[in-house]
Design brief:
binds S-adenosylmethionine; about 500 residues; binds iron/sulfur cluster; alpha/beta
C-alpha cells in the first residue's frame, strides 16, 4: 500500500510508502514507532488494496497533542516502555534519528502515519473521504460549521445512536427492530448528529453508543464513514468516544479489527444460560444464537475490547437458581454483566414486564451470592453502582446519578431525538428532529420542560422514602413504566435493596 502525500498543501511530496518507513526502523530502539506504524498500516488496510492514499493535512513538525495524549492514556500503545513519558521520549528519539536520514517529505509522512497509528480518531480526518471509498455527497459537504474554537462548557453528553433498526435476531421481548427501507441512518443524518454536537460549545465530551437494531450490520465502510465524520467535524478540544452494543451473533472480523483500532468498548447481549438465551434470542430464521455469541465474545476479548455482557431479566431468568445462573456465565468465560429488567412498550405499557419489586429481589439474591462467593469473580454493574450509592460515592451509572434529562439522547435513523432510547413508543419523550432543532433548542424546548416538571413532581413524591438520598429517584423510565402499569409508589422500587444493605451493616456492627 502506497502512502503518498501528493498534490496537497502538505508540500507536494510523493512516493513514500509505509513499508519503506517501517523498514528504516530498528526493532530494539524504535519499538514505539514500529507499533504505531503497524497500527497505521492496519487502518490503511481497510482501504482498497494497492490504493495510493493522499493525506490532506500538512505535518506540523511537532507531535500533535492527540498523539501525546494517546501515549499517556493508553498503555497498549507504549510497546513495553514503562510509562507514557518514556514512550514519548522513545518516539521523539526515533523522529530525531529519522530526520537526519529521511527527506523532509518522508519525515512529514512518518509523523502523519504515527498520528494515524496513535490517535486514529483524529488522524482519520487527514484522509480525504474518496480515498476511504466514501462517495455519498454528505462526506464532501462535511466541513466544520464555524471557525475552530474549543468548548466553553463542561457538559457530558451521551448519544444512543440508532444507526440501523435492521436486525439479524428476533428476540422474544424486543420491539426495537424494523424491516425495510428508511430504517438505516444515512451519512447525511450521521453528519447532522455529529454537527449538532460539534456546534454546541457547552459540550466538552460526547459518547456515541452505537445501537440499534443491530449496529454491526451496517458494514465496515459505513462505520469508517461515521468515524471519519466525527474526526472531521469535531470541535478542537471536544472529546468524542465510541462504544457499541451488539448481539455479537455475526460479527465480521474486519469490524472487530476496526473497533480495536479505535479503542471501542463493546458490550454484548447474552441472556444467561444457553437454553434460556436460545429461547429468548433467536435468529431471524428461527435458529439458535448462543454459540455464535460466545464465539463473538471470545474474539472481542482477544482484541482487548470486550466490556461485558447485558442480560435481560425476564421472569424466566429471575426464576432461575441464582448460583446456577452465575456459575453457567462464569463457565462460559463471562465475569462481568449488567442486568436489564425486561420492559414493556413505553407508549402503551403492554408487553413483558418485571416489576421493580421482583427486580430488587433478584438483585438482592445476586448480591448475597457474590458477597459469600468472591471466588466466582463476577462483577455486576447494578450491584457495584448500588453499593457505591449506598456509600454515597459516585456510581458512574445514569440510573443512580440523579437528573438525566438533557444528558442522554436516543437518536433515531431519521434524526428524531428522544430522551433516552428506552422511551421508544412514548410520544411525550420525542423532542424534535435534528434537521429542525439544535441540541440547545431541544434542551430548552417545551417538551423537555414538561418532562422536567414531571420529574420534579416525581421527586417530591419520593422524598418521603428513607433511601431517597441514595437512589436519587432511580431511573425515570422505570417510574414511567410503573405508572403506565397503574403503580404510583412512594418508593422508586429499590428500597428493598437498601433495606437489605442496612440490615447487613447493622448485623456486622453487632457482631464486631
Ligand atoms: C435494543 S438492543 C440493540 C443492540 C443489539 N441489537 C443488542 O441486542 O445488543 C439493546 C439492548 O436492549 C435489550 N432489550 C431489547 N428489548 C428489551 C426489552 N423489552 N426489555 C429490556 N431490554 C431489552 C437487548 O437485549 C439489548 O441488550
Ligand atoms: S438483537 Fe437487539 S435489536 Fe435485535 S431483536 Fe434482539 S434485542 Fe432487539
Ligand atoms: S431514563 Fe433511565 S436508563 Fe435512560 S438515561 Fe435516564 S436513568 Fe438512564
Amino acid at each position: 500500500m502506497n502512502v503518498a502525500v501528493t498534490g496537497t498543501a502538505a508540500a507536494g511530496i510523493d512516493g513514500v510508502t509505509v513499508e519503506r518507513l517501517a523498514a528504516t526502523l530498528r526493532p530494539e530502539d524504535d519499538a514505539v514507532a514500529a507499533l504505531l506504524l503497524d497500527r497505521a498500516r492496519s487502518l490503511l488496510a481497510f482501504l482498497r488494496a494497492g490504493a495510493s492514499v493522499p493525506l490532506l493535512a500538512a505535518p506540523t513538525g511537532a507531535l500533535p497533542a492527540d498523539v501525546r495524549q494517546a501515549l499517556r492514556a493508553r498503555p497498549g500503545l507504549r510497546a513495553g516502555t514503562s510509562n507514557g513519558a518514556a514512550a514519548l521520549a522513545a518516539l521523539e528519539a526515533t523522529r530525531r534519528r529519522l530526520r537526519a536520514r529521511l527527506s523532509p517529505g518522508e519525515a512529514g509522512a512518518f509523523d502523519q502515519l504515527v498520528h494515524l497509528g496513535a490517535a486514529p480518531a483524529s488522524g482519520l480526518a487527514m484522509i480525504p473521504a474518496p480515498a476511504l471509498g466514501l462517495a455519498d455527497p454528505a462526506f464532501a459537504a462535511a466541513e466544520p460549521a464555524e471557525p475552530a474554537a474549543p468548548p466553553t462548557g463542561f457538559a457530558d453528553l451521551v448519544l444512543i445512536a440508532k444507526l440501523t433498526r435492521h436486525c439479524n435476531l428476533r428476540c422474544t421481548y424486543c420491539t426495537d427492530w424494523r424491516e425495510g427501507p428508511g430504517n438505516q441512518m444515512t451519512p447525511a443524518t450521521q453528519a447532522l448528529m455529529v454537527r449538532r454536537v460539534a456546534e454546541d460549545r457547552s459540550i466538552a465530551a460526547a459518547r456515541f453508543i452505537w445501537h440499534g437494531g443491530e449496529p454491526s450490520l451496517i458494514g465496515v465502510r459505513k462505520m469508517l464513514g461515521f468515524l471519519w465524520l466525527q474526526a472531521r467535524l469535531r470541535r478542537p478540544g471536544q472529546i468524542f468516544a465510541n462504544s457499541i452494543q451488539t448481539n455479537a451473533a455475526a460479527l465480521p472480523d474486519r469490524a472487530v479489527a476496526l473497533w480495536r483500532l479505535f479503542d471501542f468498548k463493546v458490550s454484548v447481549s447474552l441472556d444467561g444460560p444457553r437454553a434460556i438465551h436460545d429461547r429468548q434470542r433467536r435468529t431471524a430464521r428461527g435458529g439458535a444464537s448462543f454459540d455464535a455469541v460466545i464465539d463473538g465474545i471470545a474474539r472481542l476479548r482477544e482484541a482487548g475490547i470486550f466490556a461485558g455482557v447485558l442480560i435481560v431479566v425476564t421472569p424466566e431468568i429471575a426464576a432461575y437458581p441464582i448460583e446456577r445462573l452465575v456459575g453457567e456465565l462464569v463457565d462460559a468465560g463471562v465475569h462481568a454483566a449488567g442486568f436489564l429488567p425486561v420492559r414493556p412498550d413505553a407508549g402503551t405499557g403492554k408487553g413483558p414486564y418485571l416489576p421493580p419489586a421482583a427486580f430488587s429481589d433478584f438483585l438482592i439474591r445476586l448480591f448475597d451470592l457474590l458477597r459469600t462467593r468472591p471466588d466466582l469473580r463476577f462483577d455486576v454493574r447494578e450491584i457495584d453502582a448500588l453499593h457505591a450509592a449506598w456509600q454515597r460515592r459516585p456510581t458512574g451509572f445514569c440510573e443512580l446519578n440523579g437528573p438525566c434529562l438533557g444528558g442522554y439522547f436516543g437518536i433515531e435513523p431519521d434524526g428524531t431525538v428522544r430522551h433516552c432510547d428506552k422511551f421508544l413508543g412514548s410520544a411525550s419523550h420525542a423532542l424534535g428532529n435534528l434537521a429542525e432543532r439544535s441540541l440547545a433548542d431541544i434542551r430548552a424546548s417545551a417538551g423537555m420542560a414538561a418532562l422536567k416538571q414531571r420529574e420534579a413532581e416525581r421527586w417530591l413524591r419520593l422524598r418521603s422514602c428513607a433511601w431517597y438520598g441514595h437512589c436519587k429517584g432511580w431511573c425515570p423510565h422505570e417510574s414511567h413504566i410503573a405508572a403506565l402499569r397503574g403503580e404510583t409508589a412512594r418508593c422508586c422500587g429499590l428500597a428493598p435493596v437498601f433495606d437489605h444493605f442496612a440490615a447487613l451493616a447493622t448485623a456486622e456492627r453487632l457482631s464486631a
